[in-house]
Amino acid sequence: MADAMPDTPSPVAISLDRLSKRFARGNTLALDDVSISVREGEVFGIVGRSGAGKSTLIRSVNLLERPDSGGVTVLGQDLLALDDAGLRAARRGIGMVFQHFNLHSRRTVAENVAFPLEVAGLPAAERRARVAEILPLVGLEGKRDAYPAQLSGGQKQRVGIARALASRPRILLCDEATSALDPETTREILALIRDLRARLDLTVLLITHEMAVVKAICDRVAVMEAGRVIEEGPVFSVFTRPEHPTTRSFVAEVIGHGVPASTLSRLPLPRAGEKRRLAQVVFTGPNSTRAVVSEASRDYGLDINIVSGRVDDIAGEPFGVMALAAYGPDPAIDAAFAWMRSLGLTVTEIAP
Ligand SMILES: Nc1ncnc2c1ncn2[C@@H]1O[C@H](COP(=O)(O)OP(=O)(O)OP(=O)(O)O)[C@@H](O)[C@H]1O
């Protein structure tokens, strides 16, 4: 099979076009002219703090929330133009996974997974066959007759995922799907979603308040604040070159910034007439940091201490992060940082 041309973008699977939504209660503008395009096969993340509008946005994709204005197109279909029957049919092509699993406690695993198929009027034999097919895909073979109370959180979410996929949707929406899970289970569930995306040709749109989730699973990300998208791009570039201060603070949660007070107290103080300035430097290209640091020290007459450094990996691409302390006159430090930026390094000064 020929590889797809790497630069040929796949078709748009979900197009949210200039959505606005105001809730009468509280007169809250939850969505303020938001546009997002998710391409087929992508895992697209929407990250934001509580109240940013993420839930309202993801619920607009299957019209659980109707926008006041704007367009919602999923797999080429204008959802706002559909009648009730048309919308029910379209929703079968859009699975949804919830933070608190939303399982029926008095139904077994198999009955929970089969529930949407029952609602859709599928005969019992077909429901059973589909359940038998899907449980192994989510690692729940052997659990078909268990009740939710007998399952761990991770297993409950596997049931939620199986139920979302029961009607063979091509789109999977994940509404804070791992927020109720511990870190290890979160990793397992994210890996499962990524694996299912590839095996079942899914397009995944997820919302989260955790940048670590975005780093673990997403191809592209949009950052929301106060009902708007404030930054959007491939995960690697958003992590390595965040532009908006809110994005920077999200990224810092994952790749770290600042220098612990204990480390700071061990750093030499600047000499009289000199400054000590701390910076976080992110490098992604061919420049080795060590060579850059020694060249900057030499050419700008500075003393530079590497305070910390590590190599991380985002979306399969390596990048390095280090904190350094530069000692010297302000103009020389300014010039050295500008030179580093001209090499493509991201230099962000951090408060001492
Ligand atoms: N049904 C509703 N009625 C009134 N206000 C609402 C309703 N749903 C959401 N809001 C408000 O709209 C804004 C956006 O809420 P939304 O739930 O979309 O944000 P979020 O980013 O998902 O945050 P969270 O993670 O806390 O749910 C908030 O100010 C919220 O209080």
Fold topology:
Elements: E1 12-23, E2 28-39, E3 43-48, H1 54-61, E4 69-74, E5 77-78, H2 84-92, E6 94-98, H3 109-119, H4 124-137, H5 153-165, E7 171-175, H6 183-200, E8 203-208, H7 211-217, E9 220-225, E10 228-234, H8 235-240, H9 245-255, H10 261-266, E11 275-283, H11 289-300, E12 303-314, E13 317-328, H12 330-342, E14 346-350
Parallel strand pairs: 3-8, 3-9, 6-7, 7-8
Antiparallel strand pairs: 1-2, 1-4, 4-5, 9-10, 11-13, 11-14, 12-13
Helix pairs in contact: 3-4, 3-5, 5-6, 11-12
Bound molecules: adenosine-5'-triphosphate (ATP).
Task: Report on the architecture of this protein.
With 352 residues, this protein is of the alpha/beta class. It is 36% helix and 30% strand. The protein has helices spanning 54-61, 84-92, 109-119, 124-137, 153-165, 183-200, 211-217, 235-240, 245-255, 261-266, 289-300, 330-342; strands at 12-23, 28-39, 43-48, 69-74, 77-78, 94-98, 171-175, 203-208, 220-225, 228-234, 275-283, 303-314, 317-328, 346-350. The strands form three sheets. Strands 6-7-8-3-9-10 form a six-stranded mixed beta sheet, with helices on both faces. The chain is elongated. The N and C termini lie far apart (55 Å). Residues 23, 25-26, 28, 30, 48, 50-56, 209 line the site of adenosine-5'-triphosphate.
Question: How would you concisely characterize the structure shown here?
Answer:
The protein has twelve helices and 14 strands.
Low-confidence stretches: none
β-strand amount: 25-35%
Ligand inventory reads:
adenosine-5'-triphosphate
Number of DSSP-assigned strands: 14
Q: Compute the number of helices.
A: 12
CATH homologous group name of the largest domain: P-loop containing nucleotide triphosphate hydrolases
Spatial strand sequence of the major β-sheet: 6-7-8-3-9-10
The run of helices and strands is EEEHEEHEHHHEHEHEEHHHEHEEHE
Structural class: alpha/beta
**Shape category:** elongated
Second-tier CATH architecture of the largest domain: 3-Layer(aba) Sandwich
Helix content: 25-40%
Kindly provide the radius of gyration, computed on alpha-carbon positions and rounded to a whole number of angstroms: 24 Å
According to CATH, the fold-level topology of the largest domain is Rossmann fold
Largest sheet: 6 strands, mixed
Organism: Falsiroseomonas algicola
InterPro entries: AAA+_ATPase, ABC_transporter-like_ATP-bd, ABC_transporter-like_CS, ACT-like_dom_sf, MetN_ABC, MetN_ABC_transporter-like, NIL_domain, P-loop_NTPase
Family: Belongs to the ABC transporter superfamily.
GO molecular function, one term: ATP binding
